[in-house]
């Protein structure tokens, strides 16, 4: 799909400097722009590229002044970065604006399908499923029995939502994510052999939750594993059974959270963090990457290390960690002197 500079300026409420009829069909970084692409300049350190870019259209701040001739048409806006972000969102909406039911796909006769939905080829929609309006289920996805998905939510290709789970409005479940698999529940007997404990709960995602590719969220043993409103989970995260994550918390890739742990609101958790089960993490907590959390955490703490220490304590201790060989050598030298003088 092609857009003219004039059309784009209308979307962004900007002003065209150059050819209003020039067309673009792709987006590009300013240093990689080619004919038919649109780019933007927001960071001054990239200013030199505007004079060499081959992009047909460049979005710039309204106070931008040229110092030499340009080959690109400009669209001047109040904030180039925000304007380009708005354009990305608009572009994404168009790209994902699919509707209808592709074949082959399976939709149970008892399923309830809202308006303007898209169900891609080879998808499975189970018994008593309820899909709201404007839901997109991309090809090769599985929606189990009795699942509810709210308005404007998206399940990308290969997403799996097991039975009884509840997905809110405006949620995004990326490819390969699995919502509602059995939790890791096994009980040993007197012989040391393990028997599976049935996992009969579900997973609830509240509104505006994003789940990254390959992330797994286990169903509760009883009750629900709950991901509260506005939570953003990166790729390849493991959320165990009966975990609860508070609203607007963000978690980076490869983090693992063990069963029945409660995480508060507005937390920021870095990549490869390990969190044990049955603890409580307060609100506004920040955990640095690769930390190991083995205890409950109060509100507003900032942690690093394994086992995790207070962020300031960790940094002070690290000064000594890296100097430990030198410190040991000094101690050994002192001991030799003391022994020699005794």
Automatic annotation (TrEMBL):
Domain UDP-3-O-[3-hydroxymyristoyl] glucosamine N-acyltransferase non-repeat region: 21-89
Keywords recorded for this protein, A-Z: Acyltransferase, Lipid A biosynthesis, Lipid biosynthesis, Lipid metabolism, Repeat, Transferase
GO molecular function, one term: UDP-3-O-[(3R)-3-hydroxyacyl]-glucosamine N-acyltransferase activity
Highest taxon listed in the record's lineage: Bacteria
A GO cellular component annotation in the UniProt record: membrane
Active site, renumbered: 241
Involved pathway(s): Bacterial outer membrane biogenesis; LPS lipid A biosynthesis
EC number: 2.3.1.191
GO BP term (any one): lipid A biosynthetic process
Entry keyword Acyltransferase: yes
Catalyses which reaction(s): a UDP-3-O-[(3R)-3-hydroxyacyl]-alpha-D-glucosamine + a (3R)-hydroxyacyl-[ACP] = a UDP-2-N,3-O-bis[(3R)-3-hydroxyacyl]-alpha-D-glucosamine + holo-[ACP] + H(+)
Key word Lipid metabolism present: yes
Pfam families noted in UniProt: Hexapep, Hexapep_2, LpxD
Its biological purpose: Catalyzes the N-acylation of UDP-3-O-acylglucosamine using 3-hydroxyacyl-ACP as the acyl donor. Is involved in the biosynthesis of lipid A, a phosphorylated glycolipid that anchors the lipopolysaccharide to the outer membrane of the cell.
Assembly description: Homotrimer.
Similarity section: Belongs to the transferase hexapeptide repeat family. LpxD subfamily.
NCBIfam families from the UniProt entry: lipid_A_lpxD, PRK00892.1
Protein name in the entry: UDP-3-O-acylglucosamine N-acyltransferase
Taxonomic lineage of the native organism: Bacteria, Pseudomonadati, Bacteroidota, Flavobacteriia, Flavobacteriales
């Amino acid at each position: 799909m092609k857009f003219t500079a004039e059309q784009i300026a209308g979307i962004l409420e900007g002003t065209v400097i150059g050819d209003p009829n020039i067309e673009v069909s792709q987006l590009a970084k300013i240093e990689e722009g080619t004919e038919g692409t649109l780019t933007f300049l927001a960071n001054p350190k990239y200013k030199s590229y505007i004079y060499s870019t081959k992009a047909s259209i460049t979005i710039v701040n309204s106070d931008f002044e040229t110092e030499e001739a340009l080959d690109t048409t400009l669209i001047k806006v109040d904030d180039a970065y925000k304007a380009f972000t708005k354009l990305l969102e608009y572009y994404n909406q168009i790209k994902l604006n699919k509707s209808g039911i592709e074949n082959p796909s399976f939709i149970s006769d008892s399923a309830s399908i809202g308006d303007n939905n898209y169900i891609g080829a080879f998808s499975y929609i189970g018994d008593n499923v309820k899909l709201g309006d404007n839901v997109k289920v991309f090809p090769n996805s599985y929606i189990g029995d009795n699942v509810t998905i709210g308005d404007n939510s998206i399940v990308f290709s290969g997403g799996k939502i097991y039975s009884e789970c509840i997905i809110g409005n405006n949620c995004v479940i990326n490819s390969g994510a699995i919502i509602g698999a059995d939790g890791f529940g096994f009980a040993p007997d007197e012989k040391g052999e393990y028997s599976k404990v049935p996992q009969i709960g579900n997973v609830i995602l509240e509104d505006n939750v994003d789940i990254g590719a390959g992330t797994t969220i286990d169903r509760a043993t009883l009750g629900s594993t709950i991901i509260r409103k506005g939570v953003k989970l990166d790729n390849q995260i493991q959320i165990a059974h009966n975990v609860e994550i508070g609203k607007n918390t963000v978690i980076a890739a490869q983090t693992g959270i063990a069963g029945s742990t409660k995480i508060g609101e507005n937390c920021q958790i870095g990549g490869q963090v390990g969190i044990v089960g049955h603890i409580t993490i307060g609100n506004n907590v920040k955990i640095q990457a690769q930390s190991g959390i083995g205890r409950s955490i109060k509100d507003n703490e900032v942690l690093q290390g394994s086992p995790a220490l207070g962020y300031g304590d960790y940094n002070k201790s690290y000064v000594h960690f890296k100097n430990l060989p030198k410190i040991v050598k000094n101690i050994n030298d002192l001991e030799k002197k003391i022994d020699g003088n005794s």
